Amino acid sequence: MELESRTTSGVDFSSGDITPTAYSINTTSGIGIYHYTCTGANATMVHGLSSAPKMLITKSLGDTAPWAVWHTGMNPTNYLVLDTTAAEVTGTAMWNSTAPSSSVISLGSDGQSNGSGKNNIMYAFSDVKGYSAFGAYEGNSNVDGPFIYTGFRPAMVIIKNIDRSEPWKIWDTKRSPYNTTENTLNVNDDTAQNSSAVQKLGLYANGFKVRTTSTEINTSTCVYAAFAEFPLVSSNSKAGVAR
Fold first, then answer.
1. What is the pTM of this model?
2. From CA 50, how far away is CA 52, in angstroms rounded?
3. Is residue 58 part of a domain?
4. pLDDT at 238 exceeding the cut of 60
5. Where in the sequence is the domain holding 155, given as residue range(s)?
6. 83: number of CA atoms within 13 Å, CB side?
7. Arithmetic mean of pLDDT, 165-174
8. For 60-70, what is each residue's pLDDT tens digit?
9. CA-based, 20 to 30 A from 236: which of 155, 180, 184, 230?
10. Cis peptide upstream of residue 180 (ω within 30 degrees of 0)
């Protein structure tokens, strides 16, 4: 299916080095999708979102290069690989050692993010109050693990330990509608869901709590992406409030 070239915010891409060949940008949900031709050299691309992206995922469409991920909980000199369990890797050429700004995404010369002549797809996520949250926490290796405030009850939480070789984990309220959630899926492989009680996560009205000693999500530094079950955000990108 062809990606429709549209945006809700009238983006002018001329102030960046790369102009997407197709894009879809939703400033209300804080999500941008961009199909772009890579330059093979340090470059910027205007993202058109209302704030700086907190997470980037990009993939070359024409070869088997891995998925490259940047997250706000990481240094911009580093990256993660979505389709492996690997810890974060140093790669200054991936994002040109520069975190996304309020206006542009920076790319280096790495073949995964901006290989010369390649065509890539990129997904960018900015956090929206009442709808999404991105951040990092330190595990304590205790069954009474960290509580992470999001400001909403998450419908889905994705967690990756960036210091260890551990899988990308997903919890959601559809497979586990009641607390504490125990059914997890791995993003990086095709294994069946894990229903083990050792991978517990509590999903609450204002955030989530780690309730396991598992090294996958409760030791070292972990990054997360959370999306609301009942988004409290209006069409003007402002958090909804009671009248």
1. 0.90
2. 7
3. yes
4. no
5. 132-228
6. 9
7. 94
8. 999 999 999 99
9. 155
10. yes
